[in-house]
Amino acid sequence: EDDPAYKAHQNVEDMIPQQRTIYMLYRTYNTSRNYDCQYIKFGTKNGLTYPETILGYRVPTKTHSETTTVTITVKITPYSRPKDGSPTPRSTPNTLVYTKVSEDESQENTPHDYYLIYADTNKCAVMRDPQRDRGYGCEMFVSDPSSQPSQTCKTMYTSSCGNVKNTVWKDDCNKAIQEEEEIDWGDD
């Protein structure tokens, strides 16, 4: 996320319309609860926000997934590696700001920044979760849960995040989402 050479692939406002729903395939970290079947379904853009964005997940003790609705804000974060002693500015948003579903007792229920390391059009995105792995947590998302990320996304994940791949999207996740959609939660 700190290499200006990849700026064309680090614009979250380009990524979102091309990947309206993204599914977390794997990540570098584990949590105390290890929710699986995680996805983000972006709401309709309103200025610098995406209200009505749905975060989906499954608690390991359940067969169906659950959802929560959040507002995601996009913002520009400068490159952290200084060039000539000062931060290199960006011209496009590279960061999502939102409150994630808490999988740990220790995780605060406050919004945090999530940086786009690399997005491959209509295929995949590598995101940094700086609240994990001492600032180096990473997540691999795909736009189709039955597909694999492109070779470029895989390479960017490995070079930016290492080789750890804790599986989040499991074989029965599509079924878990379908079951959740069929439940009458009584909130109509």
Question: What is this entry, summarized?
Answer:
The chain has helices spanning 12-18, 151-161, 173-182, and strands spanning 21-27, 36-41, 49-58, 66-75, 82-83, 86-87, 95-98, 112-120, 124-129, 137-142, 166-167. By secondary structure, the chain is an alpha+beta fold.
Polypeptide structure, described:
With 188 residues, the protein is α+β, with helices and mostly antiparallel strands. It has one domain: Calycin beta-barrel core domain (Lipocalin), CATH 2.40.128.20. The chain contains 3 helices and 11 strands; from the N terminus they run αββββββββββαβα. The chain has helices at 12-18, 151-161, 173-182, and strands spanning 21-27, 36-41, 49-58, 66-75, 82-83, 86-87, 95-98, 112-120, 124-129, 137-142, 166-167. The strands form 2 sheets. It has an 8-stranded antiparallel β-barrel. β9 (124-129) and β10 (137-142) form a beta hairpin.
